[in-house]
Write a structure and sequence with these properties.
globular, alpha+beta, Pnp Oxidase, Chain A, 7-stranded antiparallel beta sheet, 9 strands
């Protein structure tokens, strides 16, 4: 297999751009996620890819909850804000309008909408990203509009 062709083809998979909120033991954080898909209607389940070496993944494991905040096509700057890992002394949510959701994980007030999940399963022992299966337990719509996609940003993540 040609590694460059594989990378190019995998980067053509369409992905949304989301802000994933996490909370545990009084601490909150959020990160930009792109690997997300619905995997069941009953119960409503989603699968989210999360880097295993991230602090947010540890928070998801420990708390067992997360939010998915959907952005509109004009909100690339918000996605950029959450792309880089936070240092121990940096609060990425400072200055961002949020509220705790019913699970305690942060909901972005300026997002198109959101849903909250309880972790039901974590898989992918072999990969650098875990597959977190979450059951959607709450949701809200702040407004309607076209959702931000990875293609809209000009970024590449994958391959």
């Amino acid at each position: 297999m040609d590694p460059q062709v594989k990378k190019t083809v995998l980067r053509k998979l369409p992905h949304g751009v989301y802000i994933i909120g996490v909370a545990h033991n009084g601490h909150t954080n959020a990160f930009t996620g792109t690997w997300l898909t619905q995997v069941s209607f009953t119960p409503p389940l989603v699968a989210l890819g999360v880097r295993k070496d991230s602090g947010s993944f540890q928070m998801i494991q420990d708390a067992g909850v997360f939010t998915v905040n959907l952005l509109d096509k004009t909100q690339k700057p918000i996605a950029e804000h959450f792309v880089k890992p936070a240092g121990a002394d940096h609060d990425k949510l400072a200055g961002i309008r949020t509220r705790p959701g019913s699970t305690g994980a942060p909901v972005l007030e300026d997002a198109l909408g959101y849903f909250e999940c309880r972790v039901r399963e974590i898989a992918n022992a072999q990969g650098d990203h875990a597959v977190v299966i979450g059951e959607v337990v709450d949701a809200g719509l702040h407004r309607d509009g076209p959702a931000l996609t990875l293609m809209d940003t000009g970024w590449h993540y994958g391959g």
